[in-house]
Amino acid sequence: MVAITVILAAVIAAFVLDMTPGGDTVQASVDVSASGTDTVELSVNDGGNADYLVLVEAGSGSVANADGGTPTGTTEEANTGASYTVHSVTGSNDNDDFLSGAGQFTDTDYEVWAVDTDLSGGDSLDAADASVKVGEFTLT
Fold it and tell me: InterPro entries given for it (predicted)?
């Protein structure tokens, strides 16, 4: 009888405190074109319920900054129909997208994440209440 009461209390607490398995979720759809070049285009097919997109160096778990650490990385809005361009240090163009100022990204592998929280360079993806990987690419 005590075990049933404890289980019932845990289930009720999970609903009341919104502690459902998996937590909050976010969804979006992004096309990545020209991976493996010095300029990559990102197109938001469906922003879903995501507020922002952010670039993360593959495997790092935190928002990417420009080559050399400045300017810092920023989020971009995940609006359906939006498109963004990402340039590497090998190219001759500066980024206006995903950076707080003009700069270029390091030649490496990146992941595109949809998030529900405005993040900046160096922030961990864990700082977002919800996030999902929606693409990946390589800058050369």
Answer: Pilin_N_archaeal
